[in-house]
């Protein structure tokens, strides 16, 4: 068991001292002092400002735009409307088969959802641009709107055959079950709301486009810009040194970036376009609303015999985005019979997007709530029910797990939480103030993916050591863990390593998505740093000028940044001194994990398409992270308020590269889960599909006062089938299972089932 916050040393299992230690964030000081310059902090000379204008109908056509007044408004440089904006080129789709192929119409005249961008105004200042934008007169021909999947005429949607599952005969098994739960679970539209807004600062330097923009996937975004403007991908530089949160919303290039780059080219000046908080609710998608009906059957001993699932989720009228509702259902428990169907309901919304634990969150909400209902019905403790249904192998594929320590998370979590003292019946516990107290549990999972990439290492005669990667850090800890990974392999301290990230001119990095970046990049950086160590030692033994020339192989080692002769420690010199002695300013190398023999274009394709992603362990084993959440709630029945008063969560994410940062990731996910359970949800105007609560005053997310003590612990062990350095995904799993654990606790407190998020006071009274 790991004390996550204080571990001073790495796990010695592979000789590492630094990877695995709870090093504080290396970028922490700069961020706290406000010295960390984010992409949108850039102010190139002559920069001007653009604003986007949103459609105020939910569907229909733009007939005309009268821009006369706007064009004459103070400081205005350019007005772009559907009728005078050139179409951009066709970038290759990075999601296979998804639209985006074909010329990119920046402002189509066809309006498919409320808030779709219809125009842009560029002026000397942001205020001037906003003032002028308010003067645009836009004529629409509105059409009928399907505001949500609740709208009349919206359903029943279209089947998504490729996620269907038929395992055994679930329908028959459900009929014969000793215990049976049938219920419908619903989750609303949720939004990413990162504190840093979306936006871009674009400028042209000759034929080269430089875009500074927060990004989770530098290379793929750059590729889209290249496609839009018909320039080679080397001619796009995308810079994203820090990212103020993304949660899945900053993966692709969007209209604001197209407008910035287009206007910068037209005006010959740098242009900054920032999406406002309100616009963020329609400029890019949040999590799709979902609804699923679950039938769970179990035998008399509480072994699951069948799951029948029928789900639906919303998507836009133009892209079939699937929020996959069986992604947790299919792997959590050992159930021989599973039938799962999902339909997509096309409505007038912006296309939904991946949001932290896409699919897994709503999937677990349904399954883990239903498991609690089953436990209650069968009179079995909910932890015990889960343990009885532990799966020895992946029940969907029959593959062995690379590792699955869910049992340990459940057992240890129960012990830490004091679960043994839980009275089985609801409404049995009250606090001193008379509030009802309830305890709930739920489990979760998140599957691992792997990706390719490169990592660069540069060592200077001035003593500098740099790690170079286009990969990014959105608050996760990439800067820190890569310094740790390099330090171990090179034989230096992490403090001696400077990590440079988030620039497409640097060696190609994987996306920060699917919680895969840490696993891929620690492996690559370790590999590159080890190669650098070998290079340094070879040069020390062979280069004229080196004090070690002529010594035998295997007589030098690098420790604490110095090259030591094994038998003569007093003769050690710093790495920088060796470089000076052999007349080198610097050494630089790049390592990668691409298949052998592929060319530059193929590498680029792999790095910028979803098809470049692959299964860890070549698919030989099934690699997932696991978690169990134990939650206490206090419910005031008079006021209908629910407070989460305690959380204890156990995680199996393999080895943790930095337990302190991983704990922070877990807590962040749990906080987001509390928001999902109690607060978050888009409110949709049924007339036109407008998101009514498109601001942080009305779209509520948890604040400090909503967050109790959260205890997180790790039961993971190094899993080298999962990744080169033994870790499994961390960034998203924290959220999975939190909402059902809270709702299960509310049931235990009140006897009332919450099957629809966010929790509505009306459901309690
Ligand atoms: N880590 C670890 N041990 C591991 C794996 C990871 O210690 N075995 C720690 C490291 O500090 C690492 C971090 O966890 O930097 C996340 O690693 P990983 O799980 O590989 O996730 P990514 O680096 O790919 O980051 C993306 C992931 C995703 S997909 C979402 S969504 C998400 C998340 O990270 N969005 C976030 N966490 C977020 N955290 C912040 N602050 N802001 C967001 O927008
Ligand atoms: Mo995370 S939703 O994969 O960016």
Task: Produce a short descriptive summary.
The chain is 24% helix and 23% strand.
Structural summary, described in words:
This protein is an alpha+beta fold. It has 16 helices and 28 strands. α5 (218-229) links the parallel β11 (208-212) and β12 (236-239). α8 packs parallel to α16 and α11 (478-490) packs parallel to α12 (517-542). The model has no long low-confidence stretch (mean pLDDT 95). Dioxothiomolybdenum(VI) ion binds next to loops.
SSE layout:
Elements: H1 28-32, E1 48-54, E2 60-66, H2 68-72, E3 76-80, E4 110-111, E5 117-123, H3 126-133, E6 137-142, E7 158-159, E8 165-167, H4 170-175, E9 179-187, E10 199-205, E11 208-212, H5 218-229, E12 236-239, H6 255-267, E13 271-274, H7 277-283, E14 290-298, E15 304-315, E16 337-346, H8 360-378, H9 382-388, H10 406-417, E17 429-430, E18 436-447, E19 454-460, E20 465-468, H11 478-490, E21 497-500, H12 517-542, E22 556-559, E23 562-565, E24 573-574, H13 575-581, E25 586-592, H14 600-608, E26 624-636, E27 641-652, H15 659-678, E28 709-714, H16 738-750
Parallel strand pairs: 1-13, 11-12, 15-16, 20-21, 27-28
Antiparallel strand pairs: 1-5, 2-4, 2-6, 3-5, 7-16, 8-16, 9-14, 10-11, 10-13, 14-15, 17-18, 18-26, 19-20, 19-25, 22-23, 23-24, 26-27
Bound molecules: pterin cytosine dinucleotide and dioxothiomolybdenum(VI) ion.
